[in-house]
Amino acid sequence: DAGVIQSPRHEVTEMGQEVTLRCKPISGHDYLFWYRQTMMRGLELLIYFNNNVPIDDSGMPEDRFSAKMPNASFSTLKIQPSEPRDSAVYFCASSQSSYEQYFGPGTRLTVT
Amino acid sequence: GEDVEQSLFLSVREGDSSVINCTYTDSSSTYLYWYKQEPGAGLQLLTYIFSNMDMKQDQRLTVLLNKKDKHLSLRIADTQTGDSAIYFCAENKGANNLFFGTGTRLTVIP
Hints:
The complex is a heterodimer of chains A (112) and B (110). Chain A is mostly beta strands. In chain A, 0% of the residues lie in helices and 55% in strands.
């Protein structure tokens, strides 16, 4: 298996623009997680899905952030409008009804 | 405390043992994990331990768990330069999501 795939790997955008991050989980995994990593706050869980249904979105910072999982093999995290303080590395992870999460390589977002 | 706590930095000489410590928060955590993050990469699961165990060994890695003190440690024997990375401790608090520590940056000096 190719592992968790994220795209793009790097994104540079201007403040106010919409940003969409994409994730393909490992085939057969039924949990999908979105995390954000910054120097100041470390690794934060934003939202997670089970069988494509959002279970806990309490980590989503504000209404500018939204996440969807239209099917078992694809999820998006959207920021609209983006702000400089959203600059971070965003990770997607997946797991198979167990506690072992497998992480993607991350998307480094820079908002200028 | 409410947060998983780790020291931020550790430096060791190549060939020595490294011990990375973690204090977790919830005695109901079923599993405790160690993840490794190399520069520019995602987190990689290194090892994990079930809460009813007090030790797990996997090649150069030894995990020790003290449930009474909620203390977890990772020992890396014969540390190599390739072990330089950030190491994260995580607990599941009985749920399906994980709670990560701040990470310990291990620097191996040749």
